[in-house]
Specification:
By secondary structure, this protein is an alpha/beta fold. Strands 1, 2, 3, 4, 5, 6, 7, 8, 9, 10, 11 and 12 form a 12-stranded mixed beta sheet that branches. Helix 6 links the parallel strand 6 and strand 7. Helix 1 packs across helix 3. The radius of gyration is 19 Å and the shape is globular.
């Protein structure tokens, strides 16, 4: 089944060229089926790139998905045009009275700041609190995962002596619907200057540790009902994303080592190979099917009414 996006969204043409099944609103309207309503809070600087990465994964599913893109009202984007944001994004004020089947909260390049120093932290806290009653399952990625763990459970992030940067091997620590079909050992990219201590997560009874890495630490944690899911890496990254980040930092004169286990023979002059695509697609397919579709109510209006009664 296809992913449903606005007809003129730039990512639609890119995904169609890759044979990802995308459908415009007009065609989707003729299908007698309720699509899953997925909200994406895009905090990444290059929003169009992140849109394409996430939509590629959401589109590789037998379920029809209707995507709403969300931006922060209290932050002015520097790397995405105001026209693009105005055309394709909404603010929290515009969606807060709705309910959603699923939500994705992306990473953001603010991890070296204290949470409270982030200019949009108060607005993000409002959104994170709202997800508990308005969203069936919320998938947090990288800094989004750190922010969610801090807001919901008081788990702090901590600075790393060296950036966690590369493609690392992970193991499955707990078999559940979200990790169904995962290889015993699988690869995923990481790119962050901070992390969350495993022992801090293990002390929270509401959380289960699902996957870890000897080098990268915690990768995947979730509540038992999968209503809150935390991914500390970047499974959505393209093959060249880490290379682009490395080249950017080199051009800035930063003291940065090449990403580990990424370039062939650890040679930055060699083009990287995507070795995590299958895992990323399975993670998102499992999330959509088992954590969202199988448990979300068909009629979301009841959730809206319940939330309004709680206010």
């Amino acid at each position: 089944m296809p992913i449903k996006v606005p007809d003129d969204l730039p990512a639609k043409e890119v995904l169609a060229a890759e044979q990802i099944f995308v459908m415009g609103y007009q065609r989707a309207f003729t299908q007698d089926i309720r699509p899953l309503k997925i909200l994406i809070l895009n905090l990444m600087p290059k929003k169009e790139v992140t849109e394409t990465q996430l939509l590629r994964l959401l589109g590789n599913s037998p379920l029809q998905v209707e995507v709403t893109l969300l931006r922060m009202r209290s932050h002015v984007a520097k790397n995405t045009s105001a026209e693009h944001l105005e055309l394709f994004y909404q603010t929290f004020d515009e969606v807060s009275e709705q309910a959603f089947d699923g939500m994705i909260i992306t990473g953001a390049p603010v991890e070296q700041l204290d949470f409270e120093e982030v200019t949009y932290w108060d607005e993000l806290c409002e959104i994170l609190d709202w997800t508990r009653s308005a969203v069936t399952s919320t998938l947090h990625i990288c800094w989004g995962a750190q922010a969610g763990l801090y807001r919901h459970y008081g788990i702090p992030k901590r600075p790393l002596p060296e950036k966690c940067f590369g493609v690392f091997e992970h193991t499955v620590d707990l078999r559940c619907d979200l990790t169904r079909g995962f290889d015993d050992r699988f690869l995923a990219p990481h790119s962050r200057h901070t992390d969350v201590a495993l022992e801090d997560v293990s002390r929270v009874p509401e959380l289960q540790i699902l996957s870890t890495s000897p080098e990268a630490g915690l990768y995947l944690a979730a509540t038992p009902d999968a209503s809150q899911i935390f991914v500390t890496g970047h499974p959505e990254y393209d093959a060249t994303t880490l290379a682009e980040e490395y080249e950017r930092d080199v051009q800035r004169g930063l003291d940065i080592l090449p990403p580990k286990h990424y370039f062939p023979d650890d040679d930055p002059s060699q083009p990287p190979v995507n070795r995590w695509r299958a895992h990323a697609n399975l993670l998102f397919a499992n999330w959509l099917n088992y954590c969202v579709y199988q448990v979300t109510p068909y009629d979301l209006s009841g959730r809206v009414r319940k939330r309004q009664a709680q206010l």
